[in-house]
Amino acid sequence: MAKKELIRIYNLEKHYGLKVIFNTANCSIHEGEIYGVLGRNGAGKSTLFRMVLGLEEPDDGDITLDKTTRIGYIAQEDEFDLAQTGLEYLLSTTKAQDWEIIKQALEFDMPKEKLELPINDISGGYRMRLKLIKMLMAKPNLILLDEPTNYLDLSTILLLENWLLSFKGTVLLITHDREFLRRVMTSTIEVDQGQITLYPGNIDAYFEYKQMLQNQIVRTNANIEKKQAQLQEFINRFGAKATKAAQAKSKQKHIERLEQEKKAIYTPNSKVRMHLPLIAKSSGMSLDVSNITIGYGKTKIAEGQNLYVERGQKVAVLGDNGQGKSTLLKTLAGEIQALSGEFKFGNGLRVGYFAQSVEFDTQDQETVYDYLRKVADINISDDDVKKTLGSFLFSKAEHDKSLTVLSGGEKARLRLAAVFLEGYDVLILDEPTNHLDMETVEIMGSSLSEWGGTLIFVSHDRSFVNNLATMIWQVKDGNINKYNGNYEEYVWSLKQYTDITQTQNTEQIQQTTTQYTTKDDKTRKRELYQARKELSKIDKKIANLKEDVRLGMPEASEKLVKEEALWVKVMDLIDHLDN
User: Fold this and answer.
1) Are 5-206 and 285-484 equal in CATH topology?
2) Contact at 8 Å (CB) between 203 and 181?
């Protein structure tokens, strides 16, 4: 049985000035699939999401949603009254009853005791879980997730993975986390060169298929070039002869026609390397932390900690949001003072820091290229500066872009490029992958793993951490401990804990459901009967109004839109009562 179509994209056109984002793009999105939405930065992935959400309009073409579609989307900006409890926030922003909220929260390992705390007293990881719960309480059948690993910690990502694998609806997922995609996606949507292309299968099948296509293109182009060479040989031999001039001219036109048949060969960024100043690999101390206490003012986040790092180590700092990872990095970078204790880097080591929030002094009208050339190590050539800008997704046309007009993501990418080229011996990076696409993240990971310097970094991107980390610090419950194992073992242990707690929570969910649904069942059935009766009336009105529209009756179209909107609301209520 064919799956129901939820979204139809037809001849979609979208431009920003002269830049073409979509050019007569077409695609159908069906229920019950988890689509990984892939494409380089700037290809149009987030623009597509905004148009599906109705936040932007296409220049031409249509995006048509089935009338039963209920979209779930997480707003990234904060919307909390910090004095409210989590439960009060969810009761005030959803139509759900408290027992329904408690049941949903348990699926994300957020027990009632945690819901009853003021939002001000819970970590960033739990605040994001509140947003997830709010989204899910609306019972969406289409969920849009735009880079969830940028703002969800690993524990929440694992919980979200488990939930998505049991979700019966449709998901559109943008992420540079290859492992997240590998675990949950069932189909691939590629946004590239103005088109939207659907590929069946997961991310590994997608890349295999893309490689097969590239191999075919290489073979086709080689055959075309062989034919062109044969034609050119005839021109070279006989072109000067008057009796053969017409034939030579004809063959020259044939060469030109064949040139048009050639297809562009996709060059993956993975064949590129980022340019980092050479640091010779050496032994000895890179960082020694002695009895340090970190925090803000009177708030202590971790107390009496001792840490040691050898030169050349790549240290991943892991833990849930709000545990103190960024505070640790800021302290080591000298952005904030340690509350007590001390730390020191090895003699002569220069330390560079990349923060999540980036601003530039934009009093002068400095360009992207001028800024990077100014801060780059003197031994870095102009050509390598330009190549680095390309690696960090700045096109040649953007090299002359003024710093004053850069977006937040562009500022972060430029500052990260600068940190790479400034010639530091130690790099401290806080979420460096957030504004990069998948390929660029993989290039950066490969380049850093080959680099001889010391790296201390925070990232929730599993593939990036797994390919790079040689040591793990776990920040948890006021302690910073070296984890005795590799990253895969760390993720496995966290997943085991998550699975155990979810099993325990399932029992509570069943108890909560039984407790509340028994006494509400009669009311539910009565409301369901009334809602279905109302839906039948609306169906008849819609049928009549469609006929009025066909006959050109005045105001019929406006009335039809209102009735269809009412139909969706009543259908939402029926689904809610059914579930």
Assistant:
1) yes
2) yes
Burial class (CB in 10 A: 0-12, 13-18, 19+), 428: buried
> How far is residue 201's CA from residue 35's CA, in Å, rounded to a whole number?
9
Quick one: average pLDDT of 406-411? Answer: 81
Read off φ and ψ for residue 35, nearest 5 degrees: -95, 125
Tokens of 505: 């929570």
The DSSP string of 150-168 is: GTS-HHHHHHHHHHHHH--
Q: Does residue 5 have a pLDDT over 50?
A: yes
Kindly report the CATH number that applies to the domain delimited by 5-206: 3.40.50.300
Encoded amino acid at 27, one letter: C
Predicted confidence at residue 379, as pLDDT, reads 85
**At a CB cut-off of 8 Å and minimum separation 6, what does 476 contact?**
319, 320, 323
Q: What's the one-letter identity of residue 456?
A: I
User: Rounded to the nearest 5°, which phi and psi values hold at 402?
Assistant: -75, 145
Q: What's 313's DSSP letter? A: -
pLDDT at 271 over 60: no
pLDDT cut 70: percent of the chain above it: 93
Residue of 374, 437, 435 lying closest to 403 (CA atoms): 374
Handedness of CA 191, 195, 201, 206 (dihedral sign): negative
| Interatomic CA distance for residues 196 and 45, integer angstroms | 9
Give first-to-last CA distance, the chain, whole Å: 24
What residues contact 268, with CB distance under 8 A and at least 6 apart? 439
Contact 38, 206 (CB under 8 A): yes
Which residue ranges make up each domain of the chain?
A: 5-206, 222-266, 285-484, 494-578
Q: What is the 3-state secondary structure (H, E, C) of 125-151?
A: HHHHHHHHHHHHHCCCCEEEEECHHHC
Angle among Cα 281, 286, 292 to the nearest 5 degrees reads 165
* 161/417 Cα distance (integer angstroms): 32
Fold of 285-484: Rossmann fold (3.40.50)
Residues in the chain: 579
Instruction: Kindly report whether the global pTM for this prediction surpasses the value 0.70.
Output: yes
Mean pLDDT value across the chain: 85
3-state secondary structure 431-452: CCCCCCCHHHHHHHHHHHHHCC
Q: Which two tokens stand for residue 123?
A: 């970590």
Residue whose entry in the numeric block shows the structure tokens 């070279």: 236
Provide the residue type at 47 as one letter: T
Mean pLDDT of 23-31: 94
Count of C-beta atoms within a 10 Å radius of residue 16: 11
